[in-house]
């Protein structure tokens, strides 16, 4: 399944339409921007427009990165422009942003792309992603150290390392050590593999809970009742926390392996 980037569209409505094929997605969008589902349909198919606050909230639901988010919001500004001159101004901004994106996209495409079949192998088990990330930690970048750290048999680790090398996600360095390559995987929010990825790590969480307590581990579970208005406020707090966490993780060094999962859903 190809990822749909807002940069591939001249209208934010066309971009949203391309993402609206999933069953129930319009209702979820309406919940995110705190409006009726009918309004979302009017935006997609009529003359109504999102305001900037609604567009910003939707960009987080769509998991747009910072560059995509800026482009998406500028598309909304262009659509809401009240004069031809203002529309021209935003079109010029969009053209410049898209030109920079195309240059970056070309450079990235020079790297090896991971096929859907290869992604299915990678996400078939938590072991592949765990070892893939773990080899980036200098203290755990050999088969023996990985086997000890993850409590896996040497044969399982050897097979996983061979698979990751075949997928060009890791490579051998001096001696028996490995390192991650520049090739990366990213699952769009509408990928059919997202569910399996969540299951993999929720299952590991259950295994962790059955082990002796580690005082550094953190688990929190609660069954709650809330007003629908406060549900939106809590969801926004969680999304903001996720964004801040991602920024911290991105700038952090590779020393240890952790799992981070967040769940908030209607029962």
Structure description:
By secondary structure, this protein is mostly helical. It has a domain at 6-109. It is 57% helix and 2% strand. The chain has helices at 12-19, 25-33, 37-45, 52-61, 66-80, 84-109, 116-122, 126-134, 143-150, 154-166, 194-209, 228-250, and strands at 170-172, 178-180. The chain has a two-stranded antiparallel sheet with strand order 1-2. The radius of gyration is 22 Å and the shape is globular.
Q: What is the CA-atom radius of gyration, in angstroms? A: 22 Å
Shape: globular
Please report the distance between the alpha carbons of the first and last residues: 30 Å
How is the largest sheet built, in terms of strand order?
1-2
Question: SSE layout and pairings?
Answer:
Blueprint: H1 12-19, H2 25-33, H3 37-45, H4 52-61, H5 66-80, H6 84-109, H7 116-122, H8 126-134, H9 143-150, H10 154-166, E1 170-172, E2 178-180, H11 194-209, H12 228-250
Antiparallel strand pairs: 1-2
Helix pairs in contact: 2-3, 4-5, 5-6, 8-10, 9-10
Report a brief summary of the structure.
By secondary structure, the chain is mainly alpha-helical. It has helices spanning 12-19, 25-33, 37-45, 52-61, 66-80, 84-109, 116-122, 126-134, 143-150, 154-166, 194-209, 228-250; strands spanning 170-172, 178-180. The protein has a domain at 6-109.
